[in-house]
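Hi L., both proteins are below.
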Amino acid sequence: MNRLVFSLLVASTLANASPPPAPVDQISQASIQTAFRVLQRDYIRREDLTIDQLNRAALQGLLARLSFGAEIVKQAPAAKADQRVIAESLTSEIAYFRPATYSTSEVALMETKLRSLEDKGAKHAILDLRTAAAPGEFEVAASLLELFLPRGVLLFKLRQLGSDDAQLLLSRREPIWHGTLVALVDSETNNLGETIATVLRNQKRALILGSPTKGATVRYDTVALEQGWELRFARAEMLLPDDSSVFRKGLQPDFLIALKPETKRSIFAQSNNGTIKPFVFEQARGRFNEAALVAGNNPELDDYIKRSNGETLGYDKPAPRDSVVQRAMDLIRSAEHLSHTQLRWDSKAEPSTPGTSPTIQPAQPVKP
C-alpha cells in the first residue's frame, strides 16, 4: 500500500467517525477521494500538498475528532506528585474535602480526615472533584467510592477494546462516611472525578453541583512515538452496572452553577496550603456604628486616611468567591432547615358565600 492510498484511507476513516456534523460528513467516500485528487492536481499551490502534509493533516483531523479520546502529548519527566487532601470544617456541621492528585496514598489521607471530621460532629460533606488532575487509575476511584458506599455494591465496570467481558469493581468494605454528601464537578474534572460523581449519583448517594463534565471516563494507555513525545489514547471505558456510559457525553449536574475556570484555579492555588474559607464567606467591612461608639474607636478612620492619601483599600478589589461551594452550603442548610420544620398546609378551604372573601387558614407548625 503506497503512502497516498494510506492517506486516502485515513481520510475515509475520518468521514466515518461520529463528530459534530460537518460538510465532509455529508459526502460519499468517492467524493472524498475525488477531492483529494483534484486538490493534488489543480490546487494553486499543489506543491504544498505533499504526502507528508496529507498524512499530518489526516492525523490532526483524526485527533481533533477524537477530542480527549486520543492526543499527542509531551513526555513529562518523572516527578513526585504533590499528594494531599484539602480537608477542613466550614461550619460545625459541614466539612469540605478536595483530593489533589487522586493517588493511592490520598485514599488513606481521605479516610483519616473523614473519620476525624465526623468525630468532631460533621454531618454533611462537600466533596470537591473539580481539580484538574492528570488521568488516573480506576482502582483509586473504586477505593474512594468505598468510603461512601456499602460493601458488596457493584460500583462500575471496565470494558477493554475488543473484549466482550468487563472487569467488575465492587465495594469491598463498609463505608466510612454516613452523612449527607454533595459532589462538585466541572469541565476540568478528570476521569476519576467524573467516575466518582457518576457512580455516587447512580447509587443515589450524592447530589451533584457545578457545570457539565467533558465525559472522559476512560482508562488511558500511552505509546512512545519519538524522543519527548507520546500518544495517549483511551483503551478501556467505564460503564455503570446497567452498561450505560457517559463517555463523550459528560455528566449533567443536578444543580447547574457556573464558575470561570481561571477563577477556580486561582482560588485553589491560594487555598492549597491554607483554607478555602476566605473564598466562601463574605468578610464584613468595619463600620462606625453604636458598638464602635461605645468602644471608643472608629473602624472607618484608617480607611478614610488611606483614601485621602490616594492609597487603595483591600475592599477596592474583593477576593474571588467560590460560588459553587457557597451554593452547596446553601443547599445543605436549606435541606437541614426543612428536615426539622414540619408544616401542615391545610388544603380544605371552607365554602364561601358569594360576595364575601374566603377564610384563609394559615400554615400551622406541627411539633415533632
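That was the first. Here is the second:
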Amino acid sequence: MENKEVLLSIRNLDVVFGRGKKAFKAVDNVSFDIYKGETLSLVGESGSGKTTIGRAIVRINPCSNGEIWYDGKKISGKLSRKDDREVIRKIQMIFQDPAASLNERATIEYIISEGLYNFHLYKDEKDRMAKVENVIKEVGLLPEHLTRYPHEFSGGQRQRVGIARSIVMEPEFIVADEPISALDVSIRAQVLNLLKKFQRERGLTYLFIAHDLSIVRFISDRIVVIYKGRIMEIAESEELFQYPLHPYTRSLMSAIPVPDPKIEKDKKLFVYDPDSHGYTEDRQPTLVDIGNGHMVFGAPDEIEAYKEKRFGHEE
C-alpha cells in the first residue's frame, strides 16, 4: 500500500465507559490508518469494541485517550461548530439495524432529505427533490417509494434507504456498521454490490465493521482483527486468509461455514484461549509489523514464531 494517501488515522485510542470501579475499557490502545479509496474491515466477535471504534470516528462515543485524525485534521475532542458540521457531512454512518435507525413516523422522502435540510445542501426545492429522486434510483428503489413509510419496506429495502440517506450527503468516508448482518443471505450480496458500486463511482472510503470473516473477504482491501478492545492482527485481505497467524484470527477462520455438509459436520472448530499466551511482566505483547504490511500482536518469542511460520518456507 505504498504511495497511498492516509485519509483517517487512529492513534492510541482508548474508549472507557463508566467511572471508578465500574469503568469498562471497551477499546484499548488501538492504532491504525485507513487509506483513501480503500475498504478497511474491522472484524471481531460481539463485544470486541469494533462498533465503539466506528462510533468514536463519527463522534457518538467520546475518546478517553488518544486521537483521531481525518484528512490531516484532528477530529476527536472539542471542535468548532464549523469543523463539527464539516466532519458530520464528510463522514457518514450506515447502521446495523435498518428498522431501528429509520424514523418510523417520517416518509422516505423526509428521511433522505434530513441531511440536505440540516446542511442546506440544495439550491431550491426542485434541486432537493432531484437529488432525492436521483439517489433513490441509484440504490435500486423507485421514486414512488418516497411517499411511503419505513414499515412498508423489507429489511433489504430499508437498508437501501439507509444507504441513500448517507450517499445523498456526498460524503468521502462511510462507517458501515454491520450493514448486512440483519439481512437475509440472498439480499446481502445485493447490498454489498451496491456499496462497491458507490465506491467505484464516487471514490468512497469505507470502514466496514463485521463479525464474520467470510463476508469481508471479497470486499476488503485490508482487515483488522480485534479482540476485547485490542488489535490482534492487520493484513491485506488475501494475505490474512492465506496466512492467519494469531490464534484468535485462526479461531475466527475456523468458524467460517464450509458449503459441503459432510466436511462441515466433521470439521473441528479451533477455540481461542487468551490464557494460552502466558504473558508476564517481562514478556509483554506488542503489535509488530512482521513484513508485507502484516502486523501481529504478540510477545517477542511469539513474533519470531509468526515470522518463521509466514516467511520460513520462502527462504
